[in-house]
C-alpha cells in the first residue's frame, strides 16, 4: 500500500465566491483527467479529499476511474485563512512566505503552520491505519497541506522551499518502509 498525495490543479479564481467553493478550471479538469488515466494511480482503492469544492472535484475524477466514493475530511483542509478571506495573488504569496517562514506564529490571524501540520499528519495517519487494503490510498487536497505533510514525512523543518512548484502535483509515500517520499511531480502537462 502506498499513499499518493495529489494537489488540486488550476481553479477558477473568483473574489466574489468564498475560496473553499472555488471550482476547477477547464485546464485543471483536463490536467486531472490526464493524470487519472496514468499508471501512477492504477492501484488506488480509496480516495480522500478535503471539504473544499476544488479538492472534491479533483478527487471525484480519480474516484470515478475506480468506481469508488470520495471520502471527505475537514482536517485535510488548507490552513485556516478565514481571518483574511480572499487575498489578491501577489499579496497572498507574501503571506504564504511568512506562514512557512514562521511556523509557530499566526500570519494575519491564519492558523499557524505548526498547528496545521499537526492536524494534517494526525488525519493522514488515521486514514492509513483504518485502510483495510489492499491498494493505494489517494489524498487529494492542497499545496500547503501536501507540503506540511511532506516536511513531516521527510523529517524536515517546515519551509516553503519544499512547496509544490505549481498547482496540480503529486508525490508517493510507502508507509510500511518508512522511507521518505521523493519530491513533487506534475500530475500532467502544464
Overall shape: it is globular
Beta strands, count: 6
Can you summarize the main beta sheet? Answer: 6 strands, mixed
Run of helices and strands: EHEHEHHEHEE
Strand order of the largest sheet: 3-2-4-1-5-6
Distance N terminus to C terminus?
28 Å
Average pLDDT for all residues? 96
Helix percent reads: 25-40%
Strand content: 5-15%
Rg, nearest Å? 16 Å
Helix-and-strand structural type: alpha/beta
Total count of helical runs of at least 4 residues:
5
Contiguous low-pLDDT stretches (5 residues minimum) are none
Walkthrough of the structure:
- With 190 residues, the chain is α/β, with parallel strands linked by helices.
- The protein contains five helices and six strands, in the order E-H-E-H-E-H-H-E-H-E-E.
- It has a six-stranded mixed beta sheet, with helices on both faces.
- 39% of the residues are buried.
- The mean pLDDT is 96.
Summarize the structure.
With 190 residues, the chain is an alpha/beta fold.
Q: Which secondary structure elements does this structure contain, and how are they paired or packed?
A:
Layout: E1 3-7, H1 26-36, E2 44-49, H2 53-66, E3 70-72, H3 89-101, H4 113-130, E4 136-141, H5 143-154, E5 169-173, E6 185-186
Parallel strand pairs: 1-4, 2-3, 2-4
Antiparallel strand pairs: 1-5, 5-6
Helix pairs in contact: 1-2, 4-5
